[in-house]
What we know:
Chain B: It holds the Pfam family Cytochrom_C. The structure holds 2 protein chains of 2 kinds. Chain A is an alpha+beta fold.
Amino acid sequence: MSMRKNRTHDFASSPPEPVAGNGLLHRRALLERGVMLAGAVATGAGSQLASASAEPLTNGPWSLAPGVPIPPYGQPSKFEQKVVRTLSNPKLEPRTSGARTPHHLLNGTITPNGLHFVVARGGETEIDPDKHRLLIHGLVRQPMIYTVDALHRYPMVSRISFVECGGNSAPLYSKEPIQGNVQALHGLCSCAEWTGVALATLLDEVGVDPKAKWFIAEGADLPTMNKSIPLAKAMDDAMIALYQNGEAINPSNGYPMRLLLPGYEGNMNVKWLRRIKLVDSPVMAINETKQYTILRPDGKAWQFYFPQEVKSFITHPSPGLSIKGPGFYEISGISFSGNGRISKVEVSADGGKSWAQAARQQPVLSKAFTRFRMAWNWDGGPVILQSRATDEAGNVQPSREAFIAERGPPRGTPNVAAFTMEHCNVITSWGINPKGEVSHVYA
Amino acid sequence: MSMLEKLAVSLALTLGVSVAGAADAPRLGQPIAPNDLASWDISIGPDGSGLPLGSGTPSQGAAVYAAHGCAACHGEKGSGGPSGPLVGGGPLNTTDRDPVKLIGNYWPYATTIFDYTRRAMPWQQPKTLTNDEVYALTAYILALNKIIGENDAMNAETLPKVKMPNRDGFISKYPEKH
């Protein structure tokens, strides 16, 4: 598989303006030629645009006969069968199951529901919505039970929000750069439009006791995992999500309802939600004592580390998406922050010696994926591509060196699926050799 | 700002105080009586709140461990298997090898063992153990880790009093990072 090279840029009549080392170009090279770029992609033109346009049209079978009946529920083209999640536990052995999003095979910012990442301790479960209930109790005036039907009658809100596993990108903490594609390294994050009932609406109905400072959220699947969450988050932007990208939440992601805590660690967004209990202090569940705590070099551990911090990674090109020969390419990738909007993404093609600001695809939303794009003229030499995001709170994505200085040195180079670190948001480096092959490197 | 966002902000400002702005929500919750909450409320706090009646000893726990085939996932006497060990764990402040976060060297509260076992174990048949059996398994695991004695019974009174070795090993990031 290779990235499409774009030959529409007329270097002779309008030399693009370099903005950083190794061929990074001013964003005008993207913006002013956007229409031409779009046209080239729409015709499916690959590396031989000039000669292809001279060939006479041959009608394919699709132009000469009726198609098939429109299916009741559409599936991706059979030519896209490789665009699937990778599974860490395909036989559902008694351990955690992970399913990773193929970011290198997608574009835009919204993850299709069937490709949204999943981490689940007991597999995917199928809940009968007529039998499911949500209980809200604890430090409240009146404990209440809600049917799924009842929740669907409440005023709803929608927001586009990423969800990221606390262990996403853990392989980048290893001693040696683990060779894996962007799906293996960064596939435990996704972004969707979620629609549901603001948790604050339901809490107003049950009446919050002023002594309540936290709430415990609990799922209905096999392990019935629970987690303590500050009540302030419930009053801020927490949602009982019922819809994912316009349709009922996928079973993998919590049908018929999940908790959505925009920007907070994935496991806190409890899937298959069945119970919320308001309490005055954390319950000290396994997911906030053993799991999702970060051991420091001094032997102490960080606990209740909630927001997923500012991160970006380049999806195109990336390992497995080689590039074919010198010329004009678009570098693009994904950025997000659990602390607000992405204010800036910089790209380097020389391993961090020089940086240029990438174009952010609008709209730039708080706690949502923001795609960035950078025009690039590759001269065919070895390069190291990096991206570095900054959020509106001023947080800058750290270098690997800075991250290790704070968290301590990695202890080894484990399997790519191992979780040796959490909340790892270091800069990712892709090395590209003169053949155009992309690998994961440290720079 | 939408009406609901305004509502959320207003609620945040007046935490715990009823807000008239939510009057347009349909209020379709069904009140549940305190007595009916028992089957739902399986939360157990680190202070022991929520612990049920019942009791169990390490030797009773060894029998439960054998009867339910726990060794298939956790090994003989919790020595390790596909789902990891239940005993052992070295020092946490070392950098020369990967310190494994285990019950004996890492978990801060013994109540979490009871809670997680009751809600999630055994993996193929969770929520089928009696409270006596869960207390017994908890006692067995604690005794294997030499945190309690061989004959110490665990129940709602004794379990919260168990001081785990790493009880003071945690530093909260909230609200510093929120």
